[in-house]
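Me: I hope this is not a bother. Any chance you could explain this protein sequence and its structure tokens? It all follows right here:
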Amino acid sequence: MITVHGNPHSTCTRKVLTTLEEKGAKYDLRVVDLATKQQKSSEHLARQPFGVVPVLDHDGFELYESRAIVRYLDRALPGVSLTPSDVRDYARMEQFISIEQSYFSGPTIQLLYQARGGQPDAKIVDENRAKLAHTADVLERRLGEAKYVGGASFSLGDISFMPYFALLERLGHGDIASSRKNVSRWWTDVSARESWKKVSG
């Protein structure tokens, strides 16, 4: 049995749910209410000592950290592989997962914080948009070489970026993707996948 303790609006939870949908796996989502800080409850902290989501429970095996979870699920579950078989495509996928973690998710979350109530700080917004633009330019070059982040096939590398592009779109920063030909083509493609439509819908 697969149980995910998370929140359907959480970017990291969405990575895990999209992976499960791509694998065709059945799972139970136990919603953690972030608005009431349920993630800081003693019950949740026993599962995730840093007080964030998601947490995976697979037949009693508990695992946290979304990037570790999606790699585990891809290896543990049957279904289509979300990891390139070619060693160089695999390396490129891992490179871009690292790029997402190091240079893309953080600035996106900073824009989310700026959008929450009050007047956004224009300097902070501009600084983080510049960081995102630089990373999107790197992604633009990669997607000019290959259909997906990891090569010819959809992979965990694509899943890693998807929740953040969706969040940017919701926050009014959709031009980060739409102003770049290859990124825009990629985002139109991956956001139309049934797995993503189910998770984000």
